Amino acid sequence: MRMKKKKHGPERLKLLSGLVCDDIKALYENKEAIYKNDNPLRIEIGCGKGDFVCGKSLKEPEYNYLAIEKIADVCTLAVENYAQGRGLGGLAPNGGWQKPNGTVYSLGEVVDFTGDDLGNVRFMVGDAKELLVNLPDNSCEAIYVNFCDPWSKKGHTKRRLTYIEFLKMYSRLLTPEGRFYFKTDNRPLFDFSLEEVERSPLELEYHTYDLHNSEMDKDNIRTEYERNFSEKGFSINMLIAKNNK
Ligand SMILES: C[S@@+](CC[C@H](N)C(=O)[O-])C[C@H]1O[C@@H](n2cnc3c(N)ncnc32)[C@H](O)[C@@H]1O
What we know:
Layout: H1 9-15, H2 24-29, H3 31-35, E1 41-45, H4 51-59, E2 64-69, H5 72-85, E3 90-91, E4 97-98, E5 104-105, E6 121-125, H6 128-132, E7 140-146, H7 164-173, E8 174-184, H8 187-198, E9 202-208, H9 224-231, E10 237-243
Parallel strand pairs: 1-2, 1-7, 2-6, 7-8
Antiparallel strand pairs: 3-4, 4-5, 8-10, 9-10
Helix pairs in contact: 1-5
Bound molecules: S-adenosylmethionine.
């Protein structure tokens, strides 16, 4: 995702750091204290501005969610989007954050969310490839990748989030009943991903080349990229692969 560097990006993220995790191992080990329940964990990789995780976490609140985004400024927008949607306040005229009770926090401060319901999503800035190696086997029940970079250039195949080595890692992280969900507008990437699933420890359970005209669309949560590509006339591909280890 291309984005002009945000003014005060780091301070804006710091304001909402109660919703942001900076140590994935600690998050996992303390997840009951952090989420205030022991519901199963779901992970979204490359959450962008957070539309999917915000919608999914409201629609299916019986899970906890970790949304990973490698670009800090993009993650900031996702966290703000989530906090606003959960009634935790909004951007203040001073560029800081205003809680629903009117308290205004300035850039450089941290919003005191004590007593507030932070809901079932936490965010993390970083490269999923580096972060996820720190989680134990069977640690999550679903992994979502939506509209990831196609890495179309020759020689970049291994960077795709559906490359076999990623799928092996997803299988390790997923519970035996867990599932990997993938959506893209990019047909060559989708065909590649189907082949990678075929040679991975995951088993293809469902796929469609036209999600929006399929029976799965009723439960589908459209992401920002999904809306953009769909409006331009691209059909959306989706696959679900279940763990088979
Ligand atoms: C094309 S955007 C799609 C955003 C969103 N998922 C959507 O569908 O609207 C892909 C996002 O994934 C992020 N991303 C790509 N590779 C990543 C990785 N290895 N770890 C974390 N985030 C990643 C990018 O920074 C970008 O924001």
